[in-house]
Design a protein that fits this description.
The chain is an alpha/beta fold. It has 2 domains: 133 residues, Rossmann fold, CATH 3.40.50; 156 residues, Glycogen Phosphorylase B (Rossmann fold). The chain has 10 helices and 11 strands. The protein has a 6-stranded parallel beta sheet with strand order 8-7-6-9-10-11, with helices on both faces. A 5-stranded parallel beta sheet has the order 3-2-1-4-5, sandwiched between helices. β4, α3 and β5 form a beta-alpha-beta unit. α1 packs across α5, α1 packs parallel to α9 and α6 packs parallel to α10. The longest helix is centred in the first third of the chain and has 17 residues. The protein is globular.
Length: 314
Amino acid sequence: MKRILIIRFSALGDVAMLVPVVQALAEQYPDIDITVLSQTRMADLFAGMPDHVHFHGVDTRQQSLREIVSGLGRFDAVADMHGVWRSLVVRTVMRLRGAKVETIDKGRADKRRLVHGLHSPLPHTTHRYTKVLERLGLPVDLAPTPLHQSGTGIGIAPFAAHEGKKYPLEQMEQAVARLSQCGEPVLLFGSADEAKQLEAWADRYAGVQSVAGLHTLKEEMELMRGLRVMVTMDSANMHLASLVGTRVVSIWGATHPYAGFLGYGQDEHDCVQREIPCRPCSVYGDKKCRYGDYRCMNIPPETIVRKVNNERQK
């Protein structure tokens, strides 16, 4: 049986976007043994895969590259979906062991043009992943996860890794207050470090509950699966909700869906964003605002509430 190693160590959202690609590969090539190499904490993303898909978890903060490589066997092919120095070392060793190796094209030049004024859609990250497999002789057909219509409740994940992706908390609280009056339960998602802020909102508004820091990744995804809609930033939670087929209303500031990071299967019409000349100014949201005020996030809370409720009014 042909064996393929697929490498993507981080980040959570990028690994989540790999899931539908691995699923399609497994379904369309049942005779290929597939191993996914990633951080151990990503294991829940690949639960429920076919038996010929194996997850090899590592901790890059605790394990050396020598230890990581020594724990792997031989492979016929390697798909480096990360393109960083760690994956370079792994794929180089695998190439010396006889594997055919292909690496992701991240489209860095196109992304630079995007933030310098050439505003046209770039390939989605899942498309970049499938191109790696195609060069290995394993083309796959992707079908977006259909968004379900049967959920109840509104999920809200108000945090993001970088300042350029964060909607102001004062305005988000106003949105939470308005959505709490819609007659549906509201669940607040976040990390244990963010729990205090979210618990304060839950105490303040009826029908609002914080689940921050209380569940495993798998349990959080199951909670999202049961919701009608999720409200997120351009963040990992957008991708987690997308994996379980939940509609996402996503809020975009310094970044832009055109960069190829929109939740898999989501509708661009559900993106809340200001079309102003200075954005996008960053692909990842990690650059300081040139004006110092993140005016791209000057979005009225009512805009978010209307977007969330549009589906109910149809």
